[in-house]
Design brief:
Largest sheet: 9 strands, mixed
Radius of gyration: 24 Å
Shape: elongated
Number of helices: 14
Helix content: 25-40%
Strand content: 15-25%
CATH superfamily of the largest domain: Zn peptidases
CATH class of the largest domain: Alpha Beta
CATH topology of the largest domain: Aminopeptidase
Number of strands: 20
CATH architecture of the largest domain: 3-Layer(aba) Sandwich
């Protein structure tokens, strides 16, 4: 879809529909909405007076122009209360407006930038949110449907109309940034929504190769033999139950202006392309969702492509350990003891706790490479979803300044995180009688925290943050820029975090 900024009057645009807006409680519209109202003979004002338009968030009213405007239709989008309006609301309004227009067969639309006028938002940030919301809100995954996308009318052009020419540069910048972030998020969604027979570790590596080729990243993909030579016993233990070979994917962004001698940022993503639970097999209910247990890895791959387009002055390495977790005669078993790349031994208690096994070796590899800080992202624990519900992801780590930056990056991107404790006491829960560390906690609750504590044993003293996106990686509801299926969560957070760290 093409989104572009033009200078002009929204009321004079030729389109299937033009979009204006209204805050809740406004009785006499002004600005662009007022101009359109005037050309419609006061129709919007009359509908407000009649109680048919209230300006509530999520409210849409379509008015046919009957030749009074070049556009066939006018859509009035409710923005809610002016005192509560922010960048997140822009994303939501843009996404829901785009779906509303699509449902009415509109293929070419024009809109003002919500919040950039009397809303008081920075024009560039408002335009960025508009692009993000529109592109993410229109996302569909239809690759395997017999009825092709082109058989249904889709929006293919959105004109962002601004009356003041001095704002054009800021709006263009915002649209470009928002488009990069949204397209990266949608790529992550594509990867996680894909069926596991079409998204094996080999396929995931091929997707990473495509991102590298498109955006000028260096890529290295280690095979089983190379992993074995490096001592990645934890990752290989998980992979040994599947006929699909594991892959260890490394993407490198080398910044032209990176400070000399500064360590590269490490972004690590869990890449379990299907998780049956292994010998500790999961219930059949919703096991199909486990095709997306590589959502963390998909987020890292997609974020690396976006980072390359933003070109921040910081070197970044994306790491995705990828494997399937299946039960078989060769699968790893509860009670096994395996040795990770850093030499520490792990007592296996539950083969369904496989993600931390992959990340243990990824963190060990990252430390050997000198990556600092390191941020891992994973659909790691159902316990985190139980603790936080569907609207926040969890964050823990060993470095509070880094965690604070993650929290701010999540807030800026509209992907909220909530910090869970990771204090000294939790170390007791992952102590093993027979190995250096237990793979899971002792059963005293806090499963999301004990999983993070196990990872902390491999991050050691490197500044590190762990993002548990199990609560938010997938949804069955449509709300704002989030649509049913995999959400692409953490892509924008990782990009915002990288840009923030590059400024230090």
């Amino acid at each position: 879809m093409d989104i572009r900024v033009i200078i002009g009057d929204i009321a004079s645009q030729h389109a299937d529909a033009v979009v204006v807006n209204l805050f809740e409680g406004v009785s006499s519209p002004g600005g662009a909405t007022g101009a359109v109202d005037g050309m419609l003979g006061g129709a919007i004002t009359q509908l407000i007076a009649d109680g048919d338009i209230k300006g509530k968030l999520g409210e849409f009213t379509m008015i046919h122009s009957f030749g009074k405007l070049p556009s066939k239709r006018v859509v009035v989008a409710g923005l809610g209360k002016a005192t509560e309006f922010n960048q997140d609301k822009v994303r939501r309004v843009a996404a829901e407006t785009a779906r509303y227009l699509r449902s009415h067969g509109c293929q070419r639309a024009a809109t003002i930038v919500h919040g950039a006028g009397i809303g008081g938002l920075d024009p560039s940030l408002a335009a960025q949110a508009l692009a993000e919301g529109t592109l993410m809100g229109l996302y569909t995954f239809r690759r395997h449907k017999a009825k092709k996308k082109e058989d249904d009318p889709e929006m293919h052009e959105l004109l962002v109309v601004e009356l003041e020419a001095r704002k054009a540069k800021a709006l263009d910048l915002g649209i470009r940034r928002g488009t990069i972030l949204a397209e990266a998020t949608n790529l992550c969604r594509d990867l996680a929504n894909e069926s596991s027979n079409n998204m094996t570790p080999t396929d995931l590596a091929a997707q990473a190769q495509g991102v590298a080729d498109r955006h000028g990243l260096d890529i290295q993909v280690l095979d089983r033999a190379e992993m074995k030579s490096l001592g990645m016993g934890a990752l290989l233990a998980v992979a040994q139950g599947s006929a699909e070979p594991p892959k260890f994917i490394v993407l490198r962004y080398r910044a032209a202006g990176a400070p000399e001698g500064k360590a590269a940022l490490g972004l690590l993503g869990k890449g379990v392309t299907f998780d049956s639970g292994g010998i500790s097999i999961k219930s059949a209910t919703n096991m199909d969702h486990m095709k997306g247990d590589m959502a963390g890895g998909a987020a890292v791959i997609a974020a690396m492509g976006a980072i390359a387009q933003f070109r921040p002055a910081i070197n970044v390495v994306g790491v995705v350990p990828a494997a399937e977790n299946l039960p078989s005669a060769t699968a790893y078993k509860p009670g096994d003891i395996v040795r990770a790349m850093n030499g520490k031994t792990i007592e296996v208690l539950n083969t369904d706790a496989e993600g931390r096994m992959l990340l243990a070796d990824a963190l060990s590899w990252g430390r050997k490479e000198g990556l600092s800080p390191m941020v891992d992202v994973a659909t790691l624990t159902g316990a985190c979803a139980v603790a936080l519900g569907p609207f926040h992801s969890g964050v823990m780590g060993n470095n509070q300044p880094l965690i604070d930056k993650v929290l701010q990056a999540g807030k800026s991107s509209g992907e909220p995180f909530w910090q869970l404790p990771l204090t000294e006491e939790y170390k007791e829960l992952v102590r093993s009688d027979v190995a250096d560390v237990r793979q899971t906690g002792t059963g005293n609750g806090g499963g999301a925290i004990t999983a993070a504590q196990m990872l902390a044993e491999f991050a050691e003293d490197t500044p590190w943050a762990h993002l548990d996106i199990a609560p938010t990686a997938r949804t069955d509801r449509e709300r704002g820029a989030t649509v049913k299926g995999h959400t692409g969560v953490a892509v924008r957070t990782l990009v915002h975090l990288t840009l923030a760290l590059a400024e230090e």
